[in-house]
Amino acid sequence: MEIHLGHVVTPSSGTDATPGALLDIPRGAVVTDGPVIVTVGPADEVVAGYTRSAASPVVHDHGGKLIVPGFVDCHVHYPQIGMIASPGEQLLDWLDRYTFPAEARFADLAHARATASFFTDQLICHGVTTALVYSTVHPHSVDALFTAARERGLRIITGKTCMDRNAPAELLDTPETAQSQSAALLERWHGVDRLEYALTPRFAPTSSDAQLEALGELADSYPDVVVQTHLSENVGEIGWVGELFPDAVDYTDVYDRVGLVRERSVFGHGVHLTDRELDRLGSVHASVAHCPTSNNFLGSGLFPLAASLHTAPGLRIGFGSDVGGGTSLSPLATAGEAYKVSRLIASSGDGDAVAPLSAAELLYYSTLGGARALGVDAHVGSLEPGKDADLVILDATESSGNAVLANRAAECTSTEELLFALMLLGDDRAVDRVVVNGVPDAPR
Ligand SMILES: [Zn+2]
C-alpha cells in the first residue's frame, strides 16, 4: 500500500462525454495497492484512516505538486521518433522523403529493439502511460515494442502497419500477409498484461481494396479489437483517395464498406471531415485522434473539435502527438497547441463562435477523453478507485528547471490557471515522477 500526497486534479468518469468538471483537492491523497488505485480523497481524512490500520503504508509526500492521471496518447508512430522535426513539405512528400526511409531501417531487429526501448523510456519521461502506437510493416517491430512496454508496465496498443502499394517495395506486404501476420501477432500479444493489438492499415492510399477487405475480415473475427488508421488529414490526400477509390462515397466510406468503421476505430486527424462522415463516425462511437502539433507542422489544417462534436455528439475524441509528424511527445505541449488551434477557430468569426478549449477540457482530452477514444476508460484516464495506478506528478516550481514556468505559476490564483500555464509553458521538465501501474519511476 502506498499513499501519494499532493494537489490532486483529475477528470471524473461521473461526468458525461462533454468535459469541464474536475475533481480538485488542493491537499489530496491517492492510495495505491499494487497496480490499482484504492482511495482518492482529502489527505487528512485518508491518512488518518490508514494510520489507524495495522499495515502502515509507504507515504510519498509530493508537497504542492499536482497529481494527475497518466496521460493518454491516441496516435503516435514509434519508428518515427528519430526523424521528429524533419523540416518540410506537406504530408505526401514528407512521407516519401523522411518517413519511409526511417521505417525501412526497421528491417534490422536490433534497430527496432533499441528504438522501442528509447521510445518507451521517453513516453514515461513525458508522463504518457497509455498509448496507441504505429509500428512498421515488419512483424518484429511489434514484438520489439510490446516487449519494451511489458518490461515497463505500460498500457500499449499497437499493430503491424499494413501497406501493399504506393510505398517503397521493401515496406510492402500483401493482402494475404497483412492478414496472416496481423492475426499471428494478435494471437501472441492481445491481452497479455496491459497490451492490446490494433489492426493497422496505414491509410487508404497505401492499401489496395483487397488488403482493406482482408483486414475487414480480420476485424469481423475480432469485433472488440482496436482499428487504427489515418483519415482526412490533408486536402491533397483526400483528392488522391477520391482518385484511388472512385466507387466510395467519400474517404470514410473507403474504410466503412469493408467493416473498419466501428467503436474503437481510432482515426488519426479527421481535419476535413464532411457532415456525412461525422454523422457516420458518431453513430457508431468511432474516435478521432486530434493531433494539433502535427497538423500545424505539416500545414494540414485546423481540426474543428467543437463543431465536430456538435455535428456528431457520439464521436469520441482524444489527443495524439503524432510523432514524427508531431513535434513533441509531451501531452502538455500537445494540449497547449490544441488550445491555440481552438483559439484560431474561435477567432475566425464565422458567426457561430465557440469558446476556445478550457484548461479542464484540455486535461480531459489528454486523459479520460483519450481513454474513452481508445475504449480503455474502465481502466485508465482518471484517478478513481478501481482504476490502474497510473499517476503523473507535475512540478511547476523552480525545482523543475523551468524558471519561466515557475515564475508564472507563482502568480496563478486558481487550479485552472496553473494547468493552463503548465500546458502552454511545460514539457517533460514539469514531469517530476511517474507511477506506472503502481510502480513509481526513479527520481530524476
Ligand atoms: Zn500518424
UniProtKB/TrEMBL annotation:
Cofactors (names): Zn(2+)
Per its UniProt record, what SUPFAM superfamilies does this chain match? Composite domain of metallo-dependent hydrolases, Metallo-dependent hydrolases
Pfam families in alphabetical order: Amidohydro_1
InterPro entries reported for this sequence: Amidohydro-rel (IPR006680), Guanine_deaminase (IPR014311), Metal-dep_hydrolase_composite (IPR011059), Metal_Hydrolase (IPR032466), Metallo-dep_hydrolases (IPR051607)
Tell me where the transmembrane regions lie.
none
| This protein's record includes keyword ATP-binding | no
Start and end of every Amidohydrolase-related domain?
67-438
Question: What are the entry keywords?
Answer: Hydrolase, Metal-binding, Zinc
| Top-level taxon of the source organism | Bacteria
Annotated metabolic or biological route of this protein: Purine metabolism; guanine degradation; xanthine from guanine: step 1/1
The Gene Ontology biological process annotation of the record reads: guanine catabolic process
Q: Which GO terms describe its cellular component?
A: cytosol
Q: Enzyme class, one word?
A: hydrolase
**Enzyme Commission number, as recorded:** 3.5.4.3
Q: Which reaction does it catalyse?
A: guanine + H2O + H(+) = xanthine + NH4(+)
Q: How is the cofactor bound?
A: Binds 1 zinc ion per subunit.
Q: What Gene Ontology terms describe what this protein does at the molecular function level? A: guanine deaminase activity; zinc ion binding
Which protein family is it in?
Belongs to the metallo-dependent hydrolases superfamily. ATZ/TRZ family.
The job of this chain, per UniProt, is described as:
Catalyzes the hydrolytic deamination of guanine, producing xanthine and ammonia.
Name this protein carries in UniProt: Guanine deaminase
